Each structure stands twice: as C-alpha cells, then as structure tokens.
Amino acid sequence: MDKLINDFSFGLFFWQALILLVLLFLLRKYAWKPILDSLNNREEGIKNALESAEEAKKEMQNLQADNERILNEARAERDGMLKEARQLKENMISDAKSEAQAEADKIVAQAQATIASEKKAAIAELKSQVAGLSVEIAEKVVRKELDNKDKQLELVASMLGDVTLK
Amino acid sequence: MHGNLGTEILYVMQKRTVVKILLIFTLVFTANNLFAKESEKGENDGKVDTKSEIDAYIEHHLQDSYDFTLWSDGETGAHVGFPLPVILWDNGLKVFSSSKFHHGETVAEVGGDFYKLDHGKIYKTDAAGTITYDDQHHATNVKPLDFSITKNVVTMLLVSVLMLFMFGGLAKSYKKGALPTGFGRVLEPLVIYVRDEIAIPNIGKEKHRKFMGFLLTVFFFIWILNLLGMTPLGVNVTGNIAITVCLALFTYFITQFSANKEYWKHIFWMPGVPVIMKIVLMPIEILGTLTKPFALLIRLFANITAGHVVIMSLIALIFTAQNIYVMTPISLLLTIFISVIELLVAFLQAFIFTMLSALFIGLAVQDHDHH
User: Which of A40, B122, B144, B161 could be a cystine partner for B88, CB 3.0 to 4.6 Å?
Assistant: First the structure.
C-alpha cells in the first residue's frame, strides 16, 4: 500500500483525466453518437422491413383467400344459372306440349262438332231432296197413274206401303 | 479472483465473434512477443543477468518514464529512443527536455534549480545531485509538482488519436451506406457487443443511451492500452495506479451524479429497517460507494501488473538459467502460453471494468421499488 501511494503520480493522473475528458467529448460527438444512431436506424429499418414483409405476406394470403372465395362464388353462380336455364327449358317444353295438346283437343272437338252439324245438315238436305224427289216422282207417277183410276189407287196403296219414314 | 476468472472466461467463450477477434490478436501478438524476446536477449546479454538486476529491470519497466526508450545497450550504456518534455511547477513553470537527465545519470539544471531522477521520480537537489534517504529508503528531497509528458501520457495520446481515427472512420462509413466497410466491420460488432451485453443488461434499455459514450470509451481505451502493453514497445499504462485511480474516479463520479433519489435514500436512510439499523447502515453504505470503485481500480491495476511481471520473469529465466539450451525453449513455451492468457486478460479486464461500471451506474439509476 505504501509503495502504491508512493508510486501514485499526480502528473500522470492529471494528464489521464484531461485526456480521458477530451477523448470522451470528442468520441461522443464525432464517433459514438453517429455510430449508435446509425446502428439504431439500421436496426429499426431491418425491424420495419421485416414487419412490412410479414404484413405483405398476410395481405397476399388474404388476397389469395379472397380470390378463392370470389372464384367459388362465380362457380356457384354459374352452376345456378345453368340449373335455372335447364329448368326453364324443361318448363317451356312441357308448357308448349300441354298447350299444343289443348289446342289439338280443341281442334279435334271443333272438327267433331263441325262434322256432326255437317252431317245433320247433309241428312236434312238429303231428306229434303229425297222428299223433293219423292214428290216429283210422285207427281209423275200420279200424273201417269191418274189416267187410270184403278191404277191410281193401286199405286197410292203400294207407295204408301213402301215408303216408311223414319 | 480465480473463480471469478473462470466464470469470466466461460462468459467470453460463449461470445464467438469476440473469441474469433481475440484469436486473430493472439496470433499477431504472440509473434510480436517472440520477436521481443529475441531482441531483448541480444541487447541485454551480458549485462542484466543477475537476479537483483532482473528485479530492478522489471520494476523499471513497470514504472512510467520520462523518455520513450525503445531499447538500451547494456554494455555501452547507449539508449535508443526519444526524450519527452518534462514540465515542472516549482516556483513557476519549468519546461525542459528529459534528455537533460541523461537517463538519470546527471543532474538537470533549469533556471538555477537542480533536479535529479531517482527511481523514476524527479527530486529537487543541489548542483552535486545529493539525494538523502530516510530509514525506509525513501528519498526525503522536495518533489516538485510534476506535469511531465511521460511515456504513459504519450501512449495515452497515441491511443486517443488511434481511437479517434478508428471510430471516427466507422462513424463516417455509415454516411456512405448502412454497412461499414473495412476495419469498421471488426469494430462494429464490438460496439454492438458493449451495447447489448454490457450496457443494456445492466442499465436498462431506456437509460443506457446516456452512458454509452463513457462505457464505450473506457472499454476500448483500456483494451487497446492493455494490448499495447503486450507489444515490445514496453509500455505499462493500465498497470499504473494513477491511471486506474483516474478511471475508477470517473466511474465513481458518473455514478454519484446520475444517481436518483432512491439510491441516496438507500444509502442515508435505508427503508424497511429499524431506526437503529438505519444509523448503523449509513456509514457502511457510504463506505460501500467508495469500495466499489476501489475494487475496480485495484483489479485492473493488479491484473495488468501481474501479467507484466509474470511475462518478464519468464523471459528472464533465459538469463538466469544455468543451462541456456534447456531453459530457452521452456521459457519461450511458458511465455507464449502466458501471453495467450494475458491477451484474454487484456480483454477481460477491459470487459470487467466496463461491466462493473455499467453495473454500478445501473444500480444508481434503477427505479427499484423493492429491496
């Protein structure tokens, strides 16, 4: 201890303090501050870059999920539309079918009605013609037969026997 | 200290980057030490070969000196190096070159006053250079106030300039791009290491920024000085008590001035204990603030001095050996081994000093709501 105190040099202590103070001041200003600041900046930059990369990755995933969803939706929509169209087609066909059937039925019924009325008319005309003819024949026959009284009576009797009206 | 060293070594081993850098330095400095040995052997052969001479030589090496001697020729007494300015305050400022002392062999006469070197210290004396001693062999002559630019001061200035260049360059390289280039790539992980492993764990993320300047400066200052101490330049700055006292005082004052209310409350009026205990604890706590930096300064001083003594003693084995051919390889191997350990110690002591400084600062600025 005695030797240590004896060895202690005040001059050296003084210079050391002075040098250290000046060195501290200079290094602080010209070295440590810019170095530590740039280190901090760089670390912050790296941190930010990593974070934004992570963010971008997430966004990308979101986007992909979105795309997938939209695609699925579109697919579903397309399927729906196809299905609807098919339904529509079937409906249209069946509608047309039933309509045609109805029309045909109507036409047939009409035709039948027409045929029936025509038939009636024809029968009526036939009847009147037959009646006319009969009257004409009868006239002729009557004219001829009326020359002979007996024959006239005979004829009337035979004709009345032959003609039976419905 | 041994247990401590063990855990400290383990701690460092985990930090691979630092270990890699250490390895590089190990290679460089081991090579340097080898050259140093070769040259020292050549220079001192035949002169410094007795035990007492070696003791004196080691002691002389550990001390600061007034000239920067690169090597000395023992036989001719010639010293190669350069003198440094001596600045004394003795009834006025006296500035002269240390070459006037002729390496302590002559009395320097400046403005009518006479000064002489004795065991690395300047004493006021008369024209004949008489130095009187007391019974403990301490010189009783007047010691003038000595502000000389000594070898250690020059080394510190060199290290300061080196640090300014190194870290100024690193700071500038950030202006060109986000990543440093060249030597900055080595320095940057070290700066990050100090910040992430020393400052933030001890002081906390919010408050560490204010103390980073001091911690970084002290860490690199001590480390570079420790490493320079292992070069053949033969400087021993951090193994000098005045230097470590100054460094520890810086930590002490920074700790005390940045301390918050709670820190002082814990010292002067410990909460949660009886009043009598508060009174008993007060002087103990006050003493505690002083023992912390004291431990810092002694640890650094003792470790570095011990390292220098061990390495120089091992080298000296060559000169005291009876059989130089057997002893030389043993001495060389041992020296290389210790050098490698000393390289680790050079880093460790810088690390521990910074670590403990950060710890003390952290204790003083923490918001501790429990005890």
Answer: B144
Chain B hits for A46, Cβ within 8 Å: none
What count of other Cβ atoms lies within 10 Å of the Cβ of residue B194?
22
Facing residue for B212 by CB, picked from A10, A19, A36: A36
From residue B140, how far is each of A102, A166, B89, B125, B146 by CA, in Å?
A: 147, 186, 18, 10, 16
What stretches of B45-150 show up as alpha helix (H) in DSSP?
51-62
CB contact under 8 A, A39 and B167: no
* For range A31-54, the mean pLDDT: 92
**Which of B206, B246, B353 should we substitute to test contact with A (largest number of A Cβ atoms within 10 Å)?**
B246
Q: Which residues of B touch A8 (CB under 8 A)?
A: 241-242, 245
B227: nearest Cα among B21, B15, B25? B25
C-alpha distances (whole Å) from B355 to each of B16, B124, B189, B364 are 18, 43, 17, 14
Give the lowest-confidence range in A103-107, A159-163, B73-77: B73-77
Confidence of residue B358 (pLDDT cuts 50, 70, 90): very high
For the ranges A137-151, B31-45, B72-86, B330-344, which has the lowest average pLDDT? B31-45
Q: d(Cα B80, Cα B86) in Å, to the nearest integer?
A: 18
Locate all alpha helices (DSSP H) within chain B, ordered by sequence: 2-14, 16-44, 51-62, 151-176, 184-193, 200-203, 209-228, 241-258, 261-268, 275-320, 324-365
Q: Does A9 touch chain B (CB under 8 A)?
A: yes
Residue A35 to residue B174, Cβ atoms within 8 A = yes
**ipTM of the predicted assembly exceeds 0.90:** no
How many CB atoms are located within 10 Å of the residue B153 CB? Answer: 23
Among B146, B175, B213, the residue with its CB nearest the CB of A28 is B213
Strand bridging mode B93-97 / B108-110: unpaired
Distance from CA of A59 to the nearest CA of B (A): 28
- Which residues in chain A touch residue B240, judged by CB atoms under 8 angstroms apart? 7, 9, 12
pLDDT tens-digit series, residues B220-257:
999 999 998 888 777 888 888 888 999 999 999 999 88
B133 conformational bin, left if phi > 0, alpha if psi -120 to 50, beta if neither: beta
The answer to whether residues B4 and B347 touch, using CB atoms and an 8 Å cutoff, is no
Average pLDDT over residues B62-90: 75
pLDDT on residue B91 = 76
For testing contact with chain A, the best of B190, B241, B354 (most A CBs within 10 A): B241
Size of interface A-B (CB pairs under 8 A): 119
- What per-residue string of b and e applies to B26-35 under the rule 16 or more CB within 10 Å gives b? beebbeebee
CB contact under 8 A, B242 and A13: yes
